[in-house]
Design a protein that fits this description.
The protein has one domain: Rossmann fold (3-Layer(aba) Sandwich), CATH 3.40.50.720. The protein contains 12 helices and 8 strands. α8 links the parallel β5 and β6. The longest helix is centred in the middle third of the chain and has 23 residues. It binds NADP nicotinamide-adenine-dinucleotide phosphate. NADP nicotinamide-adenine-dinucleotide phosphate binds next to α4 and α9. This is SDR family NAD(P)-dependent oxidoreductase. It holds the Pfam family adh_short. InterPro entries: NAD(P)-bd_dom_sf (IPR036291), SDR_fam (IPR002347), SDR_member_12 (IPR052992).
Length: about 300
C-alpha cells in the first residue's frame, strides 16, 4: 500500500525520500551478488546515472565496457570508474556506429541502454532521425539486435533500457511516430521517445523469449545528474533538495543487471527494485496493437535505410 501510494503520488516516490522509505520496508530485495567474470556494457557511461551504474557493476567485480560519445568522453569514463573498465567511443544515435561497436564484443552478460538527451531545439542524428528518438529508441533497437547472438551465447543475459517517468504523460503518436508533423517541444518529444522505449522493451522481450535473454525497462525517479542540471534547471531549482544522488538513481539499474529476481520475468517496467505499471489511470492511454506494430516496422525501416 505505502509503496503504491509513493508511486502514484509521484513527487514523494520519485525523490530520495521514496527510495529511503522503500528500503526500510520489509521485503526490500537483497542487494545484488558479485559479478566476477561477467561483462557489462553501459551506454552514456561518462556522467550521471550511466557513470554511477558502471561504477556499481565494476564494484561487483564485472568487466565494464563504458560507452561514451567520443574518445575523449570514453577516457573520462575510464578514469572516473575504478575496477576492470574499458572506455569505448560510440555515438549511440548512429546506426552504423552501433553496428561497428557490436562487432567488437565477444561476450556480454548485461547491456544497459542508458544514454539520453533532451535537446533544446529539434536536432537530428547523423542518419537524419530526430535525436531523442534516435538515441532512446532506434539506438537500443539496433544495438540489441546486433548484439543478440553474443547475448544469447552468454545467456542468462539481460538488457536494461533506462526510460523516464515522464513517459506516463505520452502515448505513441500514431501515424507520426517520429513526430515530424508536430512542433518541437523538448519535454514532450523526450517523454514520447521514452514511452516508445518501454513499448520497444516489451517487443524485444517477446522476440527474445526462450533465448535466455531477458529485456526490462526501468525508470530512476529523479536524480541530480548533469543531464537534469543542463536540461531542466527550473525543475532542479524547485525539487533540488529532494533529488536522488547518482548512485541512488542507478540503484535499480545495477540490481536489475545482477540480482537473480529479474531473470524470472521479461518485458517489465521497474522502479526501486519493483515492477511498476506502464500506464497510470490519469496518464496517457494504452497504445493500440496497430500503433505498436507500426513502431516496430518504422524501426526496421530506419535501421534498414543505413547499409
Ligand atoms: N536524472 C534523472 O532524474 C532521470 C530521470 C528519468 C530518466 N533519466 C534517464 O537516465 C539516463 C541517464 O541520464 P542522466 O540523468 O544521467 O543524464 P546525463 O548525465 O546527461 O547522462 C547522459 C549520458 O548519455 C550520453 N549520451 C547522450 N547522447 C549520446 C550519444 N549519442 N552517444 C553516446 N553517449 C551519449 C551523454 O554524453 P555527454 O555527456 O558526452 O553528452 C551522457 O554521458 C537517460 O536515459 C535519461 O533520460 C534520468
Amino acid at each position: 500500500m505505502i509503496d503504491t501510494l509513493l508511486d502514484r503520488t509521484i513527487a514523494p516516490g520519485y525523490s530520495r525520500l521514496g527510495l529511503a522509505l522503500r528500503k526500510r520496508r520489509p521485503g526490500w530485495p537483497a542487494d545484488p551478488p558479485r559479478m566476477d567474470g561477467q561483462v557489462v556494457m553501459v551506454t552514456g557511461a561518462a556522467s550521471g546515472l550511466g557513470l554511477a551504474a558502471a561504477q556499481g557493476f565494476a564494484s561487483l567485480g564485472a568487466t565494464v565496457l563504458a560507452v561514451a560519445r567520443n574518445e575523449e568522453r570514453a577516457r573520462d569514463a575510464e578514469q572516473a570508474i575504478s575496477g576492470d573498465v574499458r572506455g569505448v567511443a560510440c555515438d549511440v544515435s548512429s546506426v552504423a556506429a552501433l553496428r561497428e561497436l557490436a562487432e567488437t564484443v565477444e561476450r556480454l552478460d548485461v547491456l544497459v541502454n542508458n544514454a539520453g538527451v533532451m535537446p533544446g531545439e529539434r536536432s537530428r542524428s547523423v542518419d537524419g532521425v530526430e535525436l531523442t528518438f534516435a538515441t532512446h529508441v532506434l539506438g537500443p533497437f539496433v544495438l540489441v539486435q546486433a548484439l543478440a547472438p553474443v547475448l544469447e551465447a552468454s545467456a542468462p543475459a539481460r538488457v536494461i533500457n533506462v526510460t523516464s517517468g515522464g513517459m506516463y504523460t505520452q502515448a505513441l503518436r500514431a501515424a507520426d511516430l517520429l513526430s515530424e508533423q508536430d512542433e518541437y517541444n523538448p519535454k514532450t518529444f523526450y517523454a514520447r521517445s521514452k514511452r516508445a522505449e518501454v513499448v520497444l522493451t516489451e517487443q524485444l522481450a517477446t522476440r527474445l523469449a526462450g533465448t535466455g535473454v531477458v529485456v526490462h525497462s526501468m525508470h530512476p525517479g529523479w536524480a541530480d545528474t548533469p543531464g537534469i542540471r543542463d536540461a531542466m534547471p527550473g525543475f532542479r531549482k524547485v525539487v533540488g533538495p529532494i533529488l536522488r544522488n547518482d548512485a541512488e538513481g542507478a540503484d535499480t539499474i545495477v540490481w536489475l543487471g545482477a540480482a537473480p529476481e529479474p531473470l524470472q520475468s521479461t518485458g517489465k517496467l521497474w522502479m526501486d527494485r519493483a515492477v511498476r505499471p506502464t500506464h497510470y489511470r490519469f496518464g496517457a492511454d494504452e497504445d493500440s496493437v496497430d500503433t505498436r506494430e507500426e513502431l516496430w516496422r518504422e524501426l526496421e525501416r530506419l535501421a534498414g535505410a543505413v547499409v
